[in-house]
Design goal:
single chain; alpha+beta; four-stranded antiparallel beta sheet; 6 helices; flat
Length: 280
Amino acid sequence: MNEQPTPQPPSEISDADWERTPSSVKRYIEELQRRLAQQEQQQAAIAAEIELLKETIGITSRNSSKAPSTDPPSAPKRQRKKSSGKKRGGQPGHEGHSRRLYPVDECDRVFDHYPESCPCCGEQLQGEDANPYRHQIVDIPPLKPIVAEHRLHQRECPKCGTISRAQLPPEESNSGYGATLVAVVALLSSLYRHSERMVVSAMQDLFGIEMSIGTVNRLRQEASAAVAVPVNQAQEYIQQQPVVGADETSTIRRKSRQGYAARSLPLKVHWKGRANFWLK
């Protein structure tokens, strides 16, 4: 049978008095000491929580990054800025920023419009305007995919009977998609951060081209392989420089957090992510 450990005397009781104390009293004192220690720990935790609550009580959208919608009813209202008395829009003396006009030689069509008669007296108008007001309408032409069909015929040898089929020219893509389309898929997937499904929808909506999610991933890999050499050259160039700017960030992709690291110089940027996709 295991013996219970001998209770230790409190600092307030002398050893002589502790020796004369019955064992049951000693065990009771030890139990009280244990309970007192637990209560002190609980009180410390409650005090820390109270301090935290006191700090959060005074936090509003005016002294923190919290949204105004999270302010309690007791929070002071935001003071509206006093009106400056100025009208909306550009002020007198402000340099305007109008839309850039394309040069005339880049316009597909140019229409000249002349007033036929004077709106005041009705007199017929003639002459030329050396500086007419230019109004340009920019539009996107109908987007229709360019489909090139390669027919690989077969022929039978009249001498031995062997059947031979023509091979696809080496400059043509075996994937069935041209370089421009591959570049658009890579652009949507990388710079514009579209998911595979969004790329599939964009290709269908913009160009009328149907493709699967697997095809999008395959074309992304094809784009990565196409730029692998210049990307490696940029990485080697940056590694040889004495001073390089560096930064890293993270993002959520496919329900998991992935990290990206960037190394940059004034004329080169090298970005690598754990998504197995390279950009420059």
